[in-house]
Records
---
Amino acid sequence: MAIDVAPYDPAWPSQFLRVKAALADALAEVPVHSIEHVGSTSVPGLAAKPILDIDIVVERSAVPAAIAALESVGYAHRGDLGVTDREAFEAPDAGPRRHVYVCVDGTLHLRNHLAVRRVLRENAGLRDRYAAVKLDLASDPAMDIDAYLAGKSAVLQDVLALSDLTPDEKERILRLNTGS
């Protein structure tokens, strides 16, 4: 199955802000730390799969309330999908396409998302190299998502080398990305 990677779309930030406002309304009774636009669509100039990634950051104790609030406005809870302390949701509509997650504050996967976003926003050379790798992988019509994720791991390790994650955390992320 082919992977769709598109050139950067300057509409992505405004799409995020629209979704963020709707999520904030739905979560009005939940103590939310932040709603973060993460993933490649959050980095100006970066080619990306045209799907917004959104992390809703809460304390562990607020996760059940956040799940209930999102379900009440039509989001389908999909469980943690194998990632502890991250609950995934399917959006009730496709405008825009998005992955929404409730994330426990301070966890490695959340810190990873924020670190990658920061480094790629600050380092145009790495951003462009990452885009080139993604576009090259996506040009293979036989590419599947697992091979795509593994194919990006080397450049992501270079991105993470500039982050504040510990060496052990970087190694754990590498193992997750490569399935080893």
Note: Residues 145-161 form the longest helix (17 residues).
---
Amino acid sequence: MMSPTTLKPELLAPAGNFEKLEIAIHFGADAVYLGGQDFSLRNFSGNFSSEEMRRAIALAHHHEVKVYVACNIYPRSHESAGIRDFLTTLADMDPDGIIISDPGVLMMARELTPQVPIHLSTQANTTSTASARFWLSQGVHRINVARELSLSEISAMARGTRVEIEAFVHGAMCMAYSGRCLLSNFMTGRDSNRGMCSHPCRYQYAVVEEKRPGQYYPLQEDEHGTYIFNSKDLCMIDHLPALIQAGITSLKIEGRMKGIHYLATVLHVYRQAIDALIQNPEHYAPDPAWLEELSKISHRGYCTGFYLGEPGQVAPKLDGAAVSGQSFVAKVVALNSDGSVQIDVRNRIRKHDQIEVLSARKPLQADTVKQIYNSDQTEVDVVHPGTRASIRLGTPVSPNDMIRKAGI
């Protein structure tokens, strides 16, 4: 049985841009992680200018949500001045943590932002209690542990040191050791360790014998070849008590480059699960509906990674195909005075469409699109992506709720 002191883990969400930050806040994140336009490992996620980051931190703090800023590349010597400038600018924004991988950047952060807790990135490959103690001695407040660890290994680390433990619980996994991959750099000239991964582990591969050009031999008995590096996605929704009992205090969702529907759905499910566990730990049991809901978003099949010590969980996903999930059609923008709902249209919507509304801390709601109005308030039968429109529903909604097609 879990005691009250082992409960209340932090739900940590990605915020690749300002819209995703608003969605993370709306759907119940306790904290978010984000990056500036340089020096983090997701250069293609949108990210934040200095002024946007200042506004983002202020908005999150207004909603009592913490903000951790990524500065977790492994920099070259010529970038030191730029990193010093970034940290100096960050110092007066009052973030709740800085995510770092490189020892040199850590030294700069201790000098320039001594008041901001240092969080060690999973890229630092922390796999032992001795390493955790070393980083603690260097001023690290929290460690995002290596993804290769089992729950028993994490538990030993948590018992053997005072450092906070953070771990990924959901999302895409890299085929390389703690994400330290060279494939992208080698094949496309885009360095994954500097935020520009082109994901060549998702490519399809086959064997060619040099004297038989054009004859492709699949690496498995499959006519389409195989994805030899392709990992399944991590999903630990059925194992939250075990994660918390192991000493993990922050449950991290991967996906700064994922869309807002993905982010909203994952947060909606994990928020429900964590709240249910906190409210009644003695009688907690995973709800099968949670995994069903997570199956409605794009994913590459789910597994439990290395956590449970089951080798089959980290076997390659040989078919390569991703599950596309349900069709996300709109984000609620505002509630109109006449009772209609203003939306940003992301996919085509027709009058009488059967839809589902995903709202924060509420069950999924089924509804029908009763009427549609375009931007000049003319009633129409259909609206298309990239437009703003208004619709009438029978379900109460709030700004930042998600609308998707039912049964697709």
Note: The chain has a mean pLDDT of 88.
